[in-house]
């Protein structure tokens, strides 16, 4: 296991626990039975954890494996004056 995986797991667990706590507070205010409150809180906590884990895997899949595959925005061709559009003078603008 690498450090990024562990950090993602801790972050997902923390987010899930916070969502579970918020849900517990909201559901305790509502006139529901205790079993319904506990079950809904657990389901939301687990669903939040798995949603975060799946989102991390999707982001990891979309990121390039080799950082050199991504071309920087400030490439030499972008700075080349011949590759950029030239600004027109007012007398060169076509008017109909």
What does this structure look like?
The chain has a domain at 1-63. It is elongated and about 80 Å long. The model has no long low-confidence stretch (mean pLDDT 80). It is mainly α. Helix 1 runs antiparallel to helix 2. Helices cover 62% and strands 0% of the residues. The chain has helices at 3-29, 34-62, 76-79.
What attributes characterize this protein structure?
mainly alpha; elongated
Rough outline: elongated
Give the amount of beta strand, in percent: under 5%
- Classify the helix fraction into a percent range: 55-70%
Number of strands: 0
How would you characterize the largest beta sheet? Answer: none
* Helix/strand order: HHH
Low-confidence stretches: none
What is the alpha-carbon Rg in Å? 26 Å
Number of helical elements: 3
- Backbone structural class: mainly alpha
End-to-end separation in angstroms reads: 67 Å
Report the average pLDDT across residues: 80
Entry summary:
The protein has helices at residues 3-29, 34-62, 76-79. By secondary structure, the protein is mostly helical. It has a domain at 1-63.
SSE arrangement:
Elements: H1 3-29, H2 34-62, H3 76-79
Helix pairs in contact: 1-2
């Amino acid at each position: 296991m690498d450090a990024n995986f562990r950090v993602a797991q801790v972050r997902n667990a923390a987010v899930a626990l916070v969502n579970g706590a918020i849900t517990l507070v909201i559901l305790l205010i509502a006139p529901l039975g205790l079993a319904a409150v506990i079950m809904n809180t657990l389901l939301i906590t687990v669903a939040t954890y798995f949603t975060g884990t799946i989102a991390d895997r999707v982001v990891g899949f979309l990121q390039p494996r080799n950082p050199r595959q991504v071309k920087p925005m400030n490439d030499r061709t972008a700075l080349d004056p011949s590759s950029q559009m030239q600004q027109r003078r007012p007398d060169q603008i076509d008017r109909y």
